[in-house]
Amino acid sequence: MIRAFRALVARDLTLAARVGGSGALSLVFFLMIVALVPFALGPDLNLLSRIGPAILWLAAVLATLIGLDRLFQADEEDGSLDLMTGAPVPLELVVLAKVAAHWLTTGLPLALASPLFGLLVALDGTAMAATALTLLVGTPALTFVGAVGAALTASIRRGGLILAVLVLPLMIPTLIFGVSAAQSALSDTVPFATPLTILAALSLIAAVVGTLAAAAALRWSE
Amino acid sequence: MSALPSTSLWTRLSNPGHFLRWSGAAGPWLAGLSALTLGLGLYLSWFVAPPDYQQGETVRIMFIHVPAAWLGVFFYGSMTLSAIGTLVWRHPLADVAQRAAAPIGAAFTLICLVTGSLWGKPMWGTYWVWDARLTSMLVLFLIYCGIIALWRTMEDPNRAARAVAILTLVGAVNLPIIKFSVNWWSTLHQPASILRMGGPTIDPSMLYPLLTMIAAATLLGVTLHLYAMRTEILRRRVRTLTIREAERLDAGAPVLVPGPAAGSTPLGQAL
Q1: Any CB–CB contact under 8 A between B222 and chain A?
Q2: B188-218, pLDDT tens digit by residue?
């Protein structure tokens, strides 16, 4: 089981690295959204630093969508998903491995790179660290919720657009708590730990529900 | 699809063929009953209920707004139950019920949002506030839209049914979270201007018209749902018959078949 899990994660990481990874692409997309906001709002650094965490979170949500539609679709098209479904490991484990690999190539780089992008929106050191931490804790929830949509639309041609429509409403709670955790690090009204704990809980719930639902969607879509 | 005499009443009622028969008989009665209740409710809320001492005549929006909100949530609940029926028992009527419910629920949610914002303008001075109730209803509407969109993209109704059932269940898990979290969030950032109307605190002169309207709206919703389900069943029969006809032609059968061969796929067999 553990070996199968590791093998799958390694396979997907290799694929991501060699096939012009979606990880780099979503990082570039993330940078683009962050860069677009000052053009829309005007280069007022005070305003930008106040809404900086919100911008980073919004960019993270949108960047998560990039590449999500290929998560199961690529394997569905070349037939390797059938092999995985027929393999003597639970389909839930396959989903968990694939989603973990996807998060490692998209969510994790976003969280790690966010302090750098925080510079662009004039965040100070504390806010930068806080935002990076909330992204680290919260992006798994986004990926797991997204995986459900990816599984549901795996066999639909051009499922990318409908995937966004399905998944974005379900990402709202994560966005709310992610932003409020990052904001609470800026002001002293609420202790930082409270929303952060809820964010962590959301990630754990999404991991369980998302894995089960995505596996069910793949199993029943034949 | 032979008649099974020993099956329970529930099983017989939920067989698509039987469903078509009894819903055809019950439909007009339900429609009549909901028209009567709706008439009574509209009369009560328009002429009998007094204008509010603060809000004046605009309070009458409530008699449309609250039933619509209730139905928006009610249909999501019924879709959740149908989703379980689809996934656990693979019941053919469960996904028919679910598919028929989605547009109706979305429509009532939209009515709730629109009347709410029309009511909000004179009361709060703005069409829209990002408060907990409004936001969670908006998210509910978005989830409805996603479900309808997914139905429409998948061609095979059986596959679509299971996909939509999974999405419905995931959305149902999320709805309480949305409600709770937005509450929590808006109390942090702005004083919540939540529209509260705890049952007992409302005066009987308005409560009874409101309850009548809620009953009328529920009857109306159930009637619409019943007819939408009938339409959906018939649509699937047409689809099955079309596919069979195509397969028959594909197998080299002559296009024009007299008498018995044409009658060999009776409607009742098709589902």
Answers
A1: no
A2: 333 333 344 444 456 667 777 888 888 888 9
Nearest to A169 among B142, B163, B185 (CB): B142
Domain B25-188+202-240 has CATH 1.20.120: yes
Of all residues in chain B, the one with the smallest CA distance to A210 is B170
Cβ separation A168–B142 shorter than 8 A? yes
> Can you name the residues that pair with B56 across neighbouring β-strands?
B52
| A39 interface with B at CB cutoff 8 Å | no
Cβ–Cβ gap B162/A220 under 8 Å: yes
| pLDDT at position A220 | 77
**pLDDT exceeds cutoff 80 at B220:** yes
Is B117's pLDDT higher than 80?
yes
Q: What is the mean pLDDT of chain A?
A: 83
Segments making up each domain of chain A, as ranges? 2-221
Give residue limits of the domains in chain B: 25-188+202-240
CA B191 to chain A, closest CA, distance in angstroms equals 15
Contact B170 A221 (CB under 8 A): no
Question: Which tokens is A103 given?
Answer: 């998060």
User: Which of B163, B167, B169 is the closest to A221 by Cβ?
Assistant: B163
> For residues A90 and A94, what is the distance between their CA atoms, to the nearest angstrom?
7
CA angle, corner A113, sides to A15 and A115, nearest 5?
Answer: 170
% of chain B at pLDDT higher than 90: 7
B52 bridge partner residues = B56
CA distance A97 to chain B (A): 20
ipTM comes to 0.79
DSSP H or E stretch at residue B176? helix B157-189
By three-state DSSP, how is residue A33 classified?
helix
* Residue that the structure tokens 């997309």 belong to: A29
